[in-house]
Backbone:
C-alpha cells in the first residue's frame, strides 16, 4: 500500500514514501495517482488552479502555471520560483525557543586547551601551509611521519597536512581576500590541533607568515621556510624534526570531563532529497536544540540554502544586532552571486531534483530544519570564530567541500552531515557523523552511516527518538568513539573559499 507524508496542515501536496503506480489509491487522502510517481516526489492532494501556490511545510513553493487535478505528479515545471524575501525589512522576532527539559547527560570527554574557548574532540598534529606550492614535500614528509614517528606517540590520533589552494597568484589585498586569509588563520587554530602551531611556508608567496601568525608565534619552533632548507632531503628532515617535537608535546595530553559549553560543532547537508526535511534534518535540529540549551556552540551554514527562509531565521534572532549581521552576510552573498551572473536558483543539483526537490524554496525549508527551534544567538562571517555559546549561523557556501573547511576555521571539532542521495564526504581534521534520510540509502551503503533517520519515514521511530540517538552519538564521537567515516579513513580536500581575484 502506498503512503505519503503531509508535513503541515495547510499543505496541498504530500511526499510519496514509496513510488506509486498510475491509478493506484492513496488511502489516507482518498485520491488516485494520475501518473507513476517516484519515491520522494510530490502528489497534488486536491484540484489546484492556475496561479494558486503549491504549499509544502506550510510555505509557498511557487505559483502553478496551469490547472492540475488531484493526484497529479507535481513536477518542477508546473510552478514558478517566487522572489526571495527582501532583506531590508527583516526584524528580530524573539521567536526562538529552547526545549523545556534537558537530558541528564550534559558532559563529554575532550582535550582542553588553556586559554581556548573550545576543547578538542581529537588530538591531531595539524601541519599548516601558507601556500599550495609546499604541498609536494609536505605530503612526502607526512607519509614518513605517519610511518616512522607517529607510532612512538600513541596518545596522538593523527597527523593532518592542512593543504589548501590559496596563498599565491592571488590579489592578496583585494576587498574579499579577508575571507580566505581569515579562514586559514583560524583553521590553523582549530581546537583539534591542541593549540600547537606548525606552519610550512615556501618563502616568496603572497600569503606571508605574518598574515597568519602573531609576532610571538613566528619562531623556528613553529615555522619552516622551505627555501631556507638544503635540498629536498633538508626539507623533509626539517618537517619531520619539528613534527616530532610537536608530537611529544601533544602526546602528554589526556581527555577530561568537560561541560557542553566547551563543545563547538557544526552541521551541513549534502545530496539532499525530499525526505531531508522530514527525517534527518529535523532530527539534527532536535539534537542541536538540546546541545544549544546546554551551552554548546552549534553552527549551521549554507547561505544559498537558507536564503528563502531568511525571514524565518530573523524571527529567531535574539537581537536586532544579530539580524543586521544576518542581513550583511546574506546581502554579501546576493551580490556575489549577481556578480557571477547567477542567483539562488543555481543551487539545486540534478540529484536534488531526482530526489523530489523542485526548487530552492523547497530545499531551503528542509535545510533550515537542521537548525531546530533555538534562538539564533550570533551570526558570523566565513571562517570567523563565534564569541558566544548557543545556536550560531556561520555564513558559508552550501558546497560540501567548502562548507566543511570553513566551519573548521570557525572552530568546529565535529560535524553532523545529513544526506538523502548519499555521498562519502568527510573531513580528516574533525570527525563527521553521517545521518541518512531513508532506509534505502543504508541498504545501498550499509557501512557509511552512523544514524538512520529512515525510521521516521516508515513510522517506526519519532523525530525525538532519532534526535536523542543522534545527541548521544554526538557526545560519544566527541569523546573519542570513531565515526563510520573515520573507520574507513575518508576525507575530502580543504577547499578554502576565495571570492577575490586570482592573478
Ligand atoms: Ca552542503
Residues:
Amino acid at each position: 500500500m502506498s503512503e505519503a507524508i503531509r508535513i503541515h496542515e495547510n499543505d496541498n501536496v504530500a511526499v510519496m514514501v514509496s513510488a506509486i503506480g498510475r491509478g493506484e489509491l492513496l488511502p489516507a487522502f482518498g485520491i488516485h495517482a494520475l501518473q507513476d510517481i517516484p519515491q520522494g516526489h510530490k502528489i497534488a492532494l486536491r484540484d489546484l488552479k492556475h496561479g494558486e501556490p503549491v504549499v509544502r511545510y506550510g510555505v509557498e513553493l511557487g505559483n502553478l502555471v496551469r490547472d492540475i487535478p488531484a493526484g497529479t505528479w507535481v513536477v518542477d515545471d508546473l510552478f514558478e520560483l517566487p522572489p526571495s524575501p527582501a532583506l531590508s525589512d527583516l526584524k528580530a522576532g524573539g521567536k526562538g525557543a529552547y526545549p523545556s527539559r534537558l537530558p541528564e547527560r550534559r558532559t563529554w570527554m575532550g582535550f582542553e586547551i588553556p586559554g581556548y574557548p573550545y576543547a578538542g574532540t581529537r588530538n591531531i598534529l595539524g601541519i599548516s601551509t601558507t601556500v599550495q606550492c609546499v604541498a609536494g614535500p609536505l605530503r612526502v614528509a607526512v607519509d614518513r611521519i605517519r610511518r616512522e614517528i607517529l607510532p612512538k606517540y600513541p596518545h596522538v590520533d593523527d597527523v593532518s597536512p592542512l593543504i589548501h589552494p590559496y596563498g599565491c597568484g592571488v590579489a592578496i589585498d583585494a576587498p574579499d581576500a579577508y575571507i580566505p586569509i581569515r579562514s586559514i588563520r583560524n583553521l590553523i587554530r582549530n581546537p583539534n590541533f591542541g593549540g600547537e602551531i606548525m606552519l610550512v611556508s615556501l618563502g616568496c608567496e603572497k600569503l606571508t607568515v605574518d598574515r597568519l601568525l602573531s609576532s610571538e608565534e613566528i619562531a623556528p619552533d613553529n615555522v619552516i621556510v622551505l627555501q631556507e632548507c638544503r635540498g629536498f632531503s633538508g626539507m623533509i628532515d626539517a618537517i619531520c624534526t619539528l613534527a616530532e617535537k610537536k608530537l611529544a608535546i601533544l602526546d602528554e595530553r589526556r581527555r577530561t570531563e568537560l561541560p557542553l559549553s566547551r563543545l563547538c560543532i557544526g552541521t551541513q547537508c549534502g545530496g539532499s532529497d525530499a525526505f531531508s526535511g522530514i527525517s534527518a534534518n529535523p532530527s539534527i535540529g532536535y539534537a542541536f536544540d538540546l546541545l544549544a540549551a546546554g551551552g554548546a556552540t552549534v553552527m549551521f551554514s549554507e547561505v544559498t540554502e537558507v536564503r528563502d527562509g531568511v525571514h524565518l531565521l530573523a524571527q529567531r534572532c535574539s537581537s536586532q544586532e544579530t539580524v543586521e549581521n544576518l542581513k550583511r552576510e546574506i546581502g554579501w552573498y546576493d551580490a556575489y552571486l549577481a556578480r557571477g551572473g547567477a542567483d539562488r536558483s543555481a543551487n539545486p543539483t540534478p540529484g536534488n531534483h531526482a530526489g523530489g526537490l523542485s526548487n530552492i524554496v523547497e530545499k531551503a525549508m528542509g535545510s533550515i530544519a537542521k537548525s531546530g527551534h533555538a534562538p539564533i544567538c550570533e551570526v558570523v562571517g566565513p571562517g570567523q570564530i563565534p564569541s558566544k555559546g548557543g545556536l550560531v549561523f556561520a555564513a558559508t557556501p552550501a558546497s560540501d567541500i567548502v562548507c566543511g573547511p570553513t566551519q573548521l576555521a570557525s572552530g568546529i571539532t565535529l560535524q553532523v552531515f545529513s544526506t538523502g542521495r548519499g555521498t562519502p564526504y568527510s573531513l580528516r581534521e574533525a570527525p563527521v557523523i553521517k545521518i541518512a534520510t531513508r532506509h534505502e540509502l543504508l541498504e545501498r551503503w550499509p557501512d557509511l552511516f552512523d544514524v538512520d533517520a529512515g525510521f521516521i519515514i516508515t513510522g517506526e521511530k519519532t523525530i525525538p527518538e532519532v534526535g536523542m540517538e543522534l545527541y548521544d552519538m554526538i557526545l560519544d564521537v566527541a569523546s573519542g568513539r570513531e565515526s563510520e567515516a573515520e573507520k574507513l579513513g575518508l576525507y575530502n580536500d580543504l577547499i578554502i573559499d576565495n571570492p577575490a581575484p586570482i592573478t
Observations:
- The chain has a mean pLDDT of 95.
- Residues 25 and 32 are 4 Å apart (CA to CA).
- The pocket of calcium ion is lined by residues 268-270, 302, 398, 400, 403 (CB under 6 Å).
